[in-house]
Specification:
mainly beta; about 325 residues; single chain; 4-stranded antiparallel sheet; 3 helices
């Protein structure tokens, strides 16, 4: 199903969605940047189907393309944030790059024994992959510089996120792609500055390293501004300060089964979690609200405009009031 976010966020309980009937079970989906198409991974057919969505909630979706004949059992699918290509990863070490018309552009061998998490960074065409090794490998999908008709050039090795002593469970990026976070089987998480000249072989810079509060398989998410880290283990979620590594908030037993994925909303106000209990839940990012207050306090010290100072004080008062209301419940 495709849920309409505007209604999910509001108070209207009659949530609208578009239902897409599939011949076999789907395991992964990706929505195009313009919201007009969705890619569905079908492990039973070892294929990917692309659907054009209707203009209104409830309109039928139309299958416009099928990518088949994929070598290796499929694992995940993603449409790039720029809308230039489709990435399909497999359970082996292969990752395929296709055009929006389903033509194969390039094949990446991650050399990870078997692929773990594979994703495209949220604001550019960097592909990141983890596996059994203690680092995340990243590649750049490069196109010619053309405002009207950019053409595929090549896929280049970009950088590695390294320093862990064991394999990577999960990783995530900030919304501006300047920061990344990794969480490892060695019980630690690391935050990197990836805003580097990788094409000149400049390595990512380590910002901080913290210890995971609970043992076990972990999923990590970084807030859009890169200032808050969320790590889910079993049925709990812990939120940390990305710079100081301070544990800022804990959400305990938020699902009845193991949490499989967490992510922040595009505004950073909410944290989403999904689990094996077949539910998706939405949480207020209290740690992010505290970080906002800290940022506004620093801005207040240098603000010279009276209206700007009043606005900062108003924002701080609103966040503090909401946090106090939440604490009293």
């Amino acid at each position: 199903k495709q849920w309409y976010q505007r209604r999910v966020r509001g108070k209207n309980k009659d949530t609208k969605y578009t239902r897409i009937p599939l011949e076999t079970s789907g395991s992964s989906v990706s929505i195009s940047p313009d919201g007009k198409a969705v890619a569905v991974l079908l492990p039973g057919n070892n294929a990917v189907e692309i659907y054009r969505l209707g203009k209104k909630a409830g309109d039928d979706a139309t299958c416009i393309m099928t990518i088949s004949n994929i070598k290796g059992d499929v694992k995940d699918v993603s449409i790039s944030p720029t809308g230039r290509f489709i990435m399909v990863s497999t359970l082996t070490t292969l990752v395929y790059i296709y055009t929006l018309k389903g033509e194969l552009l390039h094949t990446i061998d991650t050399a990870q024994m078997s692929n773990g998490q594979i994703c495209i960074t949220p604001c550019n065409d960097l592909i990141a992959a983890s596996g059994f090794t203690p680092e995340v490998h990243m590649w750049a999908v490069q196109y010619t510089k053309s405002a009207t008709n950019p053409q595929f050039q090549q896929v280049r090795e970009a950088m590695d996120l390294s320093g862990h002593k064991s394999g990577i469970y999960s990783f995530s990026f900030s919304g501006d792609c300047r920061r990344a976070v990794t969480v490892s089987k060695d019980g630690t998480w690391r935050v990197f500055n990836i805003d580097v000249s990788w094409h000149l072989k400049e390595d990512p810079k380590l910002i901080s390293s913290g210890v995971v509060a609970e043992a076990g398989v972990a999923s990590v998410a970084m807030s859009q501004d890169g200032r808050v880290i969320a790590i889910a283990t079993l049925t709990n979620i812990n939120l940390y300060n990305a710079e100081t590594t301070e544990l800022m908030d804990t959400l305990e037993s938020v699902h009845s089964d193991v949490i499989t994925k967490i992510s922040f909303s595009d505004t950073g106000k909410f944290l989403y979690s999904c689990a094996n209990d077949k539910s998706v839940r939405v949480w207020l990012n209290r740690a992010g609200m505290v970080r906002d207050i800290e940022l506004w306090e620093e801005s207040l010290k240098t603000a010279t405009n009276a209206s700007h100072r009043d606005r900062l004080r108003q924002q701080m008062a609103e966040n503090r009031g909401l946090l106090e209301d939440l604490a009293s419940k």
